[in-house]
Amino acid sequence: MAEKRSPFVVGLLVMGNIIIMLSGLALCAESIWVTADPYKVYPILGVSGKDDVYAGAWISIFTGFCFFCVCVFGIISLVKHNRLMVLLYLVLILVVYLFECASCISSYTHRDFVVSNSRLVTKQMLSYYTSDTPQGRELTQMWDRFMMEQQCCGANDPLDWVNYTSVFRSRYTEAVAPWPFYCCKRDRNFIIVNEEGCRLGHIDYIHTKGCFEHIKHAVQSYAWGVSWFGFAILMFTCPVVLLAIYHYTTM
């Protein structure tokens, strides 16, 4: 059956595997970026138990590197025209393919749970901010950093601290601190511009936008990087694998 082998098909398979190999390295690098959490939003997902975006990223680190290794092996097997090696290549890449499918689905579905509305984030903020627990201290530091760096206040707006019951309100009366002073506008030296004006809610001295949009953007960036880039690799890998199966039957 050697006469059925087509150099053109082998060339296409080698080129396809080179593209998958490089895409796998890119996926691995992007997933490492996600697990490094540059936006520092993991505490929100970790406390809620909906951190599968990160679980998907860890799987993608593994699958991205495996795509690279398996495709290198696949190119060698194609060049050598070794039927047993090609069969092993097909088995390995199908296993990696299934793992990457799990990563994409996991990241995308749990993204919706967090970013579909702000109620989860708001409830979590009110329940843990200034709470004297390990989760509370971690989330308090995160919210303080968000409100300082992103110039925002609360999940939706400063009224989150006034309209709802919270741990923060149980510690500070509305007359003393209607909202955390990290909501106050600051000068270049990070000194509050006007503490009394901020306490009274004057728009010139308090940040009026909520922090949810920043959190939403961060989670979407992570999920899109892991799930949609991974899905694109899967879509390209599928015809390459089918062509490799056809080539195997002609060897």
TrEMBL record:
Which keywords appear in this protein's UniProt record, sorted alphabetically?
Answer: Disulfide bond, Glycoprotein, Membrane, Transmembrane, Transmembrane helix
One GO cellular component assignment for this chain's record is: membrane
For membrane topology, the record states:
Multi-pass membrane protein
In terms of CDD domains, this protein maps to: uroplakin_I_like_LEL (cd03156)
Bilayer-crossing residues are 12-33, 53-79, 86-108, 222-246
Annotated coiled-coil segments of the chain: none
Which Pfam families does this UniProt record tie to the protein? Answer: Tetraspanin
Transmembrane helix among the record's keywords?
yes
| Compartments (UniProt record) | Membrane
| Family of the protein in this entry | Belongs to the tetraspanin (TM4SF) family.
Task of the protein? Component of the asymmetric unit membrane (AUM); a highly specialized biomembrane elaborated by terminally differentiated urothelial cells. May play an important role in normal bladder epithelial physiology, possibly in regulating membrane permeability of superficial umbrella cells or in stabilizing the apical membrane through AUM/cytoskeletal interactions.
Q: Per its record, how is this protein called by name?
A: Tetraspanin
Gene name, per UniProt, is UPK1A
